[in-house]
Amino acid sequence: MSEVITAAVAALNEKMNGESFDGSAKFVIEGEGAVVIDENGARASEDDADVTLTADTDTFQSIMSGDLDPTAAFMTGKLAVDGDMGMAMKLGSVLS
Prior knowledge:
Elements: H1 3-16, E1 25-29, E2 33-38, E3 41-44, E4 51-55, H2 57-65, H3 70-75, E5 80-83, H4 85-95
Parallel strand pairs: 1-4
Antiparallel strand pairs: 1-2, 2-3, 4-5
């Protein structure tokens, strides 16, 4: 597992702060791997999910640090969303 994925799992679990996520979402970090978030928290995984969000490492890290709004990233083409858009919106509220 890459250092980027390990750091992403830790950051996502910290942001979730023990809260569960009703559904599943997968972050694909280009060239690094994937992280799945579900009712059990975040973990490195390639499992299928209700929604898949794809971004490069810099975009993902900017979203996680709060420097880039996920909606702005999506609108400018830096973040691709495939699947349940409602689930993506719900994820945004859990992580904010």
